[in-house]
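Q: I have two molecules that I believe assemble together. Could you output structure tokens for the complex as a whole instead of separate predictions?
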Amino acid sequence: MDRRSAALGRGLLYLLPLGFLGVFFFYPLLAVVVQSFAPGGRLDLAPIANLWREPYFGRALWFTTWQATLSTAVTLALGMPAAFVFARYRFRGKTVLRALTTIPFVLPAMVVAAAFTALLGSRGWLNSLLMDWFDMARAPVRLQQTIWLVLLAHAFYNTTVVVRIVGGFWSNLDTRLSEAARVLGGNRARVFFEITLPLLLPAVAAAGLLIFLFCFTSFGVILILGGPRFATLEVEIYRQAVALFRLPEASAIALAQIVLTFVVMAIYTRAQARASLPLNLRPAAATEIPPTTPAHKVFVGLTVAGLLLFLVSPLVALALRSLAEGDDALRYFRELFVNRTNSLFYVPPGLAIRNSVFFALITTVLALAIGTLTAALMARARTLGTVLLEPLVLLPLGTSAVTLGFGYLLTMGQPPLNLRASAVLVPIAHTLVAFPFVVRTLLPVMRGINPDWREAAAVLGASPWTAWREVDLPIVGRALLVAALFAFTTSMGEFGATLLIARPEFPTMPLVIYRLLGQPGALNYGQAMAMSTLLMLVCAVAFVLIERFRVGQVGEF
Amino acid sequence: MAPLLTVTDVSKSYPGLPVLKEASFAVDPGEIICLLGPSGCGKTTLLRIVAGLETPDTGTVTFAGRDVHDIPVHRRNFGFMFQDYALFPHKDVAANVAFGLRMQGLPASHIAGRVQEMLSLVALDGYERRRVVELSGGEQQRVALARSLAPRPQLLMLDEPLGALDRALREQLMNELRTILKRVGVTALYVTHDQEEAFAVSDRVLIMRARPEQGEGGWIEQEGTPSEVYRHPATEYVARFLGFRNLLRGKVVPLHGDAAETLHATSLQSATPGYRVETAAGTLVAADSAGEFAAGEVVTLLVRPEAADVRQPGERGENLLPGRLISASFRGSYYLIQTEHPGGVTLICEASTTDVELPPAGGPLTLHLDPTALTLMRPEAV
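A: Yes, here they are, computed for all two components at once.
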């Protein structure tokens, strides 16, 4: 290949991911912008003005902000002791336990919502227990459709962020700094507030902002656990677009949401850059000690037990609630595949499993293809191309799934791209949601390959192809597997975008859970629990595989 | 004078790892004591136990006549200078130095004055507002010293305080450190694995030893002034640790006639008893030993490297060893020579570069060994 055709080939390689992002991300996003500024094709600022004129936006913005703030505070309060215990103590089962804290993070919103319904809802496990014990007629714990359940679910999701970011940083913090402060006469409290906390602050801020961001764009949890009284911006976009069909208004909210998200992300990035106070970081193994005194043992034991109770009990309750009472424990699972309505048009919920797996497989292939290409291009030496690519790749991360789905509603139903009727739109949307994670998993590994290794292989007699197979592939291989699992689980659990674009004849598992939870009756409830349990198991298996195969810190936030 | 600090039979072990075995020592007020030993001998742990950062399994630490086990770290008013200094990276130089004073609840005006005083003590005037992470290694070391001295600690502990610095800087700071510590008059406990540093800084050296593979944590093997320890290592272990390589097995032979008189004369010069020792390389007179040895006793003879001077081959007389030169390496003020002698004995010595022409490698030479640089010790019990 001469030089010019090589350059042309490389140009085409750049075009592939850029083209995909252009058509399936920027075009719908642009439509959202156009829709909010010029709904009828002419400049019209009414939708934007309506944000202030009508109360729904202010209400949603206020609720979104305070619930995200409160959720962040609750999560930090619950997560900090756990972060401390993980950072400073050595005890048996620590690695497993830390991995366990990550499970909620990879669970689909619908599963978490269902799990908290199963534990604390009016039909939940706790209420049944109390009603049985005390012979009560009504459920005593009435958390369903209150803010408390939402806060708990958000904390459940994000505790691991605190444990990983703050705990990780804490474990590398030199213990001699606080020892020095102790010798100089500081008591424990003063040493914590004057030395440890200020040094941890960048990590705490980074974790807090990330949690805030996740809760700010929370959708499924609010929809199920909050009920109709609560609407975040996400929920409001959905309500305006689908229930009220006010597309310009929905667009305006989506735009506001995008802007706000990017502001928070910018602050997060700055906080991370500032976190790089040149500290004399030490290996975690050098800073952890076994709990020796009784007080330490009790503290570590209580923290670990509390964490386990908090993280495991909703999942156990979910699994328990999916089992029917009486002899036929697996009845709800079987019911998923039965057409009770005898209707020709009824789709048994079980078929959603087939749809989900099918969509997830397509998503995995698409996300890996485009993600690998993008990561490979970004891993090369910095050129104008890679510099431009980087922010473009990170953009989808800051865009909520509901906004993406809404953009598809606006654009994919008419020429030039009429894919509305096609089932392929769902995996495409899922690909965009999974894409940033795939790139972020692959990129550090690809960047970590030392070019000297390839040259060493070549000098030792390996052809370029052999060198790639012997050096690159074994290193990237595991990361590819992890990325594939990420893509697969993301697709299996994706709810926001799917809710807006899925065809009624091709529902996915989260959609079925949502529908079943919204319908009355023990059978629907049981089936929702059964379906959630299945989805939870799929994600748990994927998660175990991810933990098994990931390399180093890959896949951290 | 009653000792200020007394450590009695302190033992400590971590699961599967013995660290200290009945370590005992005492420190007088104003003394600078060095704990010297290889890595893993428990010296840092011993220091941390005195500071209260660790608790001993058994044994006691007494300070000014009071058992300190129930006094928490922050109430002991000891200073501790950490390896790598542990300066607070989020505070500037002045805030680092002021930290201990603030913990004592002193008024701000007083603190500012004391910070000034401390910074000029370590020659860092004008550094108050500098960020500690921007300082050089040597400057960080001085800030750490100022910070630990500022609250007027009753006892200052220093854990390998020069370990992170390069050789030239270390050399310079060793002397400076001793000068400052002496000027302040603080009682100090200093941990290092570098004997030069220990000799340069301390009034007294405690040499530590551990045998973790035999389940024995660290203990104090020998204590003495730097020159005592150097001249009279108590055991072969100490001699080897101090870098002496010429240890010959020998036997004390009885004295009679002229030999006894000559020996008596040399002994008078060195103020220590002299002995005649039979070794594989020949009989040697050793006149610089700390202990008493009986005729017929099996001993280890230490030939310090400065003992040798090179004589013409064929010369005969007392403490003259014929042999041949294996190798010579030029080191400036001396040659490091390796020589071989009868009985397969090899010696490594420092020979003056001015006196005599060295023969080529393999050539014959005679070494004269100065009796006052020859020391006897009891062989290691195995």
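A: One point stands out. Strands of chain A lie at 413-414, 417-418.
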